[in-house]
Specification:
This protein has 19 helices and eight strands. It has about 425 residues and is α/β, with parallel strands linked by helices. Helix 11 runs parallel beside helix 13 and helix 14 crosses helix 19.
């Protein structure tokens, strides 16, 4: 289907956007469709990517005509449950390609994380429809680069910023609950609806069901004797989950999980026996950033787990569904989200504990700790991660990269040497 008319009505730079549309299919074919023995259930996500800037944006436009509001989010600390409870729609935002970086650098320093630059570039370059259909952009204070980017963006667009605690004391959980209550009040104004405990509890059930379905897929990857799905495919499922309708997402993930569990029973693997099982940890990999997974899985390894925001951090830990009052339920939300161990916190021993635990659960042979250039918090914490893994007897390779493919051959050489050492 030709969506160019829709993009034009959204005020997009259609001609420049056409260049992105021309580049994505060959890249997707090379990285994804060239894989052998893929699960049939991945057909849904292939279809979504084929029209990634068409199908879902068109759905959002239709929902806006019915009076619903769209909330664009940059981080998993934004509580989807509150937005859903107020009949709002949550969507992720583009930011995982070198394509958007030049437009971002018109507003931000070159020496800044490519994720932040690409996100701002997608907005100001008018080449991402998700930015064009958003009624309120929701940011959070998880890094200095993002904070200043939100400040710049707020000059031209409606932006709300959640003030994240920087520590994990009991009083910090209470502080986040207060921030979520303020955010709920803002969402009430935007949507024109009132938050009730029944609506919030239903939204929590919807979001928990999505997490449970995704957890089933990840649990299938824990099989020590079989690898039923590639890391690339699991990453794609997770990336799309930030954009998709949560009920549909749960249904499709459950369907995929059924297939993977059957594959494990039958011993159907997408990799040869003896392939090195790798966990990737570090900065998030926003769509369409598939570079590292592709290098790993064409160099003799298989990614079986991601300890990152586009990985287990997104799906682990459910919200307690028992709450006596609205304030109790919002506190439950804060407790759940504070269990995510982002490098923005200090001290942050929970993340290292997570990595070691996950290495055991997923039976990994080694860990690759990846840092997007100029991501100060993850880069600094990488020193502590590597030290702890070595002390635990877990092999680790630390790398730094960005969205540009210029270092791909160098990374491939280093990763292959790491596998030989394993």
């Amino acid at each position: 289907m030709d969506y160019r008319k829709m993009w034009g009505e959204l005020g997009m730079d259609v001609e420049t956007h056409d260049n992105l549309c021309a580049a994505l299919p060959p890249a997707f074919t090379e990285i994804y469709l060239s894989q052998k023995n893929r699960p049939e259930g991945m057909g849904f996500w292939d279809m979504v990517v084929a029209d990634i800037h068409g199908i879902r944006p068109a759905e959002l436009i239709e929902e806006r005509k019915k009076g619903r509001k769209v909330f664009g989010t940059f981080c998993l600390y934004v509580p989807d449950e509150i937005i859903i409870a107020l009949n709002g729609i949550v969507t992720g935002l583009c930011g995982g390609s070198e394509f958007w970086v030049p437009d971002g650098e018109k507003h931000l320093p070159k020496g800044m994380c490519p994720l932040v630059k690409a996100s701002l570039g997608a907005y100001y370059g008018r080449t991402c429809p998700f930015f064009r259909v958003t009624d309120l952009f929701v940011g959070e204070t998880t890094c200095d680069g993002k904070k200043k980017a939100y400040e710049i963006m707020s000059q031209d667009a409606p932006v709300y910023v959640i003030d994240m605690p920087q520590m994990k004391r009991d009083e910090d959980v209470v502080k986040l609950a207060r921030e979520y209550r303020k955010f709920a009040s803002k969402c009430e104004i935007v949507t024109g609806n009132s938050l009730t405990i029944d609506k919030l509890n239903e939204a929590i059930r919807i979001t928990n069901n999505k997490r449970k379905a995704m957890q089933r897929v990840y649990n299938a990857r824990k099989n020590a004797d079989n690898i039923p799905i590639s890391g690339k495919d699991a990453l794609l499922m997770t990336q799309i989950a930030f954009f998709d309708d949560p009920v549909r997402c749960a249904q499709m993930c459950d369907k995929l999980a059924d297939e993977l569990e059957e594959r494990n029973r039958r011993g159907v693997s997408v990799f040869d026996k003896g392939t090195k099982r790798i966990m990737v940890t570090g900065t998030p990999l926003a769509i369409p950033n598939w570079k590292l997974h592709h290098i790993i899985e064409t160099s003799g390894g298989a990614v079986v787990c991601e300890e990152m925001c586009t990985g287990v951090r997104y799906i682990e830990n459910l919200v307690d569904e028992d709450g006596g009052s609205l304030d109790d339920v919002i506190l439950n939300l804060a407790r759940r989200y504070m269990k995510n161990n982002c490098s923005c916190f200090t001290p942050n021993p929970g993340r290292i504990e997570d990595i070691i635990r996950l290495a055991e659960e997923y039976h990994v042979d080694g860990v690759i700790d990846v840092n997007l250039k100029f991501c100060t918090t993850f880069d600094t914490e990488g020193i502590l991660v590597e030290k702890a893994l070595k002390e635990a007897g877990i092999k680790v390779l630390g790398i730094e990269t960005d969205y540009n493919d210029g270092d791909s051959e160098q990374l491939k050489t280093r990763i292959q040497a790491f596998f030989e050492m394993l």
